[in-house]
């Protein structure tokens, strides 16, 4: 029962990692951009939610109604104003510009909010749990978080394959110049993709902040978790990110049970092992 | 008859300038105080790290954000050899190079499966793994780190002043060796292949350059140099901990900033960048996190509007090269006829 419990906790946190990964995977799929500042944007969303919850006296889940559109707007502006200029044959500019962005966000947050660690208070729901089987307790909040992760990924999948915007995403991903010839404004399509990516980031950021303490420096580690989930799941596959997130979450949970110092290490080692034996991940859609 | 010549007027002036500067810097213990020596040694270490990263990212197209893996590894090798095996620190620095290269071989085989930006994050994961492993080694202080025992430090030289001179000259010598090795590599036929990869990877491949192999060799060689410089840095600091040894800010963000400002993909770039970086730091370090914020912004502006960096702008405008790296054909018959 102990191990079943641990695996269940790992699966549930895997949903959070899948949300980190989905935003990364989305923009990589559409414009082959890897956003090094992704983790810092997750942390930024957590701080935006902190301001909203404190300023308006609402609970973190309600704050999503504001945090999601704010982050989406930031994403649109960021892509139109800055990141579109970096796209091209050369991989260096997007990489270095998002790396610079990561440093700016981290130090900006440090300047505004200091290095103190914060936490979003979700109230009574935080400690509610129910007994799934005898001896296996499931927290209500982690379960909601997992359900939302599944819903987000299902929603992205639906959007990609059954809407006009999704068609524009896929067309631009397949061939940018042909998409342009067909009358698509790729600058706008890319900006919409980034807006959507940061909307997912907003949800992930709020759940992260309810779950654990956060401070301005924790972004890069979230980027790495998201990235590992993308690679484990296979590039370009939305459901793959969920599988990748769960594998990562379960590995970390098992590692932590063996020795607390091994939690992160176990996740990284499983990632490297999968890279060694199955570099294309489990459900690959596009080649890197 | 034709032959290939590297030197130009500007590179002759450049080489003379470098030679004079080297003599002056080697004599620094006679004209500078302790503060100056420490600052200069730090500058050398960053110039070497940036030049190595430039070779990796600027020439071989391997954009790594995980070189702190090898800086930290070098540092920990120094402490392990000196504390656990009683090896002289200078010998330990020299051993750190080959060990760094050996470790880089399996690492490269694994992360070369990732391309472009995903390669970059892959290198970061490796650095994180090294950091987490280092904090598990309780013989070297675990997560909180360890200082180099006084006995080891005292045994290096009879007096404190001599020890400081010794580390200063060591830093200068190592940096000159690293830079010299990079220049030699770039002037060789492998250097021609690397320059071809820098300019157009696909064209290089179709002209018979074994791109994978060259990148692999560059990655391993860079690890060799980075580990040695890492050991040197932590000999100066006399204390190591997983967080300082594998710091992405210190050993990657600063290094990228230096290279991008100075001019990526050119040998002179990192040197110019290091000088600018330290001038900015001396002037603005009091600003703390605001200073870092400005640094990130400057890097973005340079990358977007002046992607060749400071030296790139100068070199393109005046056709200068400070070191004899270019290749141009000299037609000897025509010269005889003139």
Overview of this protein structure:
The complex is a heterodimer of chains A (288) and B (338). Chain A has 288 residues and is mainly alpha-helical. Chain A has helices at residues 2-31, 38-56, 60-81, 92-113, 140-162, 164-174, 176-181, 186-211, 219-233, 238-258, 263-277, and strands at 129-133, 136-139. In chain A, α2 packs across α3 (60-81), α5 (140-162) packs across α6 and α5 packs antiparallel against α8. Chain A is globular and about 60 Å long. The N and C termini of chain A lie far apart (40 Å). Chain B is mainly α and 338 residues long. The two termini of chain B are 15 Å apart. In chain B, the strands form 2 sheets. Chain B has a two-stranded antiparallel sheet with strand order 1-4. In chain B, strands 2-3 form a two-stranded antiparallel ribbon. The chains are: A mainly alpha (288), B mainly alpha (338). The interface between A and B is large, with 44 and 42 residues.
């Amino acid at each position: 029962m102990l191990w079943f419990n641990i695996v269940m906790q790992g699966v549930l946190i895997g949903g959070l990692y899948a949300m980190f990964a989905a935003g990364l995977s989305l923009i990589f799929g559409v414009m082959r951009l890897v956003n090094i500042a992704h983790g810092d944007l997750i942390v930024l969303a957590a701080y935006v939610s902190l301001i909203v919850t404190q300023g308006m006296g609402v609970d973190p889940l309600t704050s999503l109604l504001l945090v999601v559109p704010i982050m989406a707007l930031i994403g649109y502006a960021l892509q139109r104003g800055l990141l579109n200029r970096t796209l091209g044959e050369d991989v260096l500019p997007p990489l270095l510009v998002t790396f610079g962005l990561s440093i700016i966000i981290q130090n900006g947050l440090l300047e505004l909010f200091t290095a103190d660690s914060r936490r979003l208070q979700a109230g009574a729901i935080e400690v509610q749990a129910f007994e799934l089987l005898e001896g296996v307790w499931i927290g209500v909040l982690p379960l909601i978080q997992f359900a939302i992760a599944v819903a987000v990924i299902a929603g992205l999948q639906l959007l990609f394959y059954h809407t006009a915007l999704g068609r524009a995403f896929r067309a631009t991903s397949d061939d940018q110049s042909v998409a342009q010839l067909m009358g698509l404004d790729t600058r706008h399509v890319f900006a919409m993709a980034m807006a959507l990516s940061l909307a997912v980031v907003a949800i992930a950021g709020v759940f992260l902040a309810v779950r654990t303490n956060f401070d301005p420096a924790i972004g890069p580690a979230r980027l790495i978790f998201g990235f590992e989930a993308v690679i484990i799941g296979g590039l370009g596959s939305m459901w793959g990110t969920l599988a990748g997130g769960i594998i990562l979450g379960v590995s970390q949970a098992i590692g932590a049970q063996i020795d607390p110092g091994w939690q992160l290490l176990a996740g990284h080692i499983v990632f490297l092992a999968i890279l060694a034996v199955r570099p294309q991940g489990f459900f690959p859609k596009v080649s890197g | 008859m034709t032959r290939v010549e590297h030197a130009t007027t500007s590179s002759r002036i450049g080489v003379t300038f470098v030679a004079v500067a080297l003599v002056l810097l080697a004599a620094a213990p006679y004209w500078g105080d302790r503060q100056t020596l420490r600052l200069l040694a730090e500058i050398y270490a960053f110039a070497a790290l940036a030049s190595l990263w430039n070779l990796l990212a600027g020439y071989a197209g391997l954009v790594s954000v995980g070189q702190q893996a090898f800086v930290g590894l070098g540092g920990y090798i120094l402490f392990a050899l000196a504390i656990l095996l009683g090896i002289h620190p200078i010998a330990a620095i020299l051993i750190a190079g080959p060990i760094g290269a050996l470790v880089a071989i399996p690492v490269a085989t694994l992360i070369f499966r990732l391309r472009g930006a995903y390669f970059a994050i892959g290198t970061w994961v490796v650095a994180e793994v090294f950091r987490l492993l280092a904090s598990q080694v309780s013989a070297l202080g675990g997560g909180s780190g360890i200082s180099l025992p006084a006995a080891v430090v005292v045994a290096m030289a009879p007096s404190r002043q001599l020890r400081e001179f010794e580390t200063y000259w060591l830093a200068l010598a190592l940096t000159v060796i690293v830079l010299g090795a990079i220049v030699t590599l770039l002037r060789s036929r492998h250097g021609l292949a690397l320059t071809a990869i820098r300019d157009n990877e696909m064209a290089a491949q179709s002209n018979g350059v074994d791109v994978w192999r060259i990148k692999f060799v560059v990655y391993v060689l860079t690890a060799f140099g980075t580990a040695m410089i890492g050991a040197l840095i932590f000999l100066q600091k006399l204390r190591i901990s997983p967080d300082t040894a594998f710091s992405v800010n210190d050993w990657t963000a600063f290094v990228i900033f230096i290279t991008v400002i100075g001019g990526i993909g050119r040998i002179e770039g990192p040197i110019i960048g290091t000088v600018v970086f330290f001038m900015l730091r001396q002037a603005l370090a009091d600003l703390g996190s605001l200073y870092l914020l400005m640094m990130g912004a400057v890097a973005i502006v340079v990358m977007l509007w002046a992607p060749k960096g400071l030296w790139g702008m100068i070199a393109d405008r005046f056709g200068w090269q400070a070191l004899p790296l270019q290749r141009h054909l000299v037609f000897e018959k025509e010269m005889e006829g003139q």
